[in-house]
Amino acid sequence: MTADPTDAFDEISEYDSTALFKPKVVSLVVSNSEERGPNLMTASWWMLAGYNPFRYLLAVSHKTLTHELIEESGEFVLAAPSMEMIDALTLSGMVSGRDIDKIEHLDLETVPGRDVDVPLLVDATGNIECSVMESFEFMDCTYYFGEVENAYVTSGGMDGRLLSPDADVLAYMGSDWGEEETKTKYRYYADITAESIKRFPGDEVVDSLPPELREQFDD
After folding, report:
1. CA distance 48 to 56
2. What is the pTM of this model?
């Protein structure tokens, strides 16, 4: 046993700790207002939060227009961006919808939601319609539990219950300054192909269990 964690690991900052759980799909949150129209926000602070009813948890800063619009409507859409939407992912995390209509500026095509008054992004890998069932505040954020009303994926985007590599989902790796002098950070993303996906059935590790536990999986 080592005397200190740094004997076994390199220590990193709290901010860099997010790299340990990437690549991930960063959501484009779509919200809407009858007066203002639709808005986009890049969101990393979301997670699956339950099955019955099926729901997601989304954290939204009180500083954002998205917070204002969700408070007004009680609805939002989680859109999974495709590889070609890296510009939307970048801009939507940098510029406020109070200053520019991001959907119009990015020339993004939309279609109306079925059970929410929030548009879906046509070029996204998929869209999830959510209605707010509960929320709570902590520090400067509101955490919304969004019940899934409907979910959609691009045509041919599913391989059984798995997302197909043909869906071209944007697997986000994070951002960092490049070697050249730039105004913004570089955004890095992974190109997931069929060849990069490996299958693990789990039988070997189950066979390593004590007999009384292994019987639960052998039946």
Report:
1. 4
2. 0.92
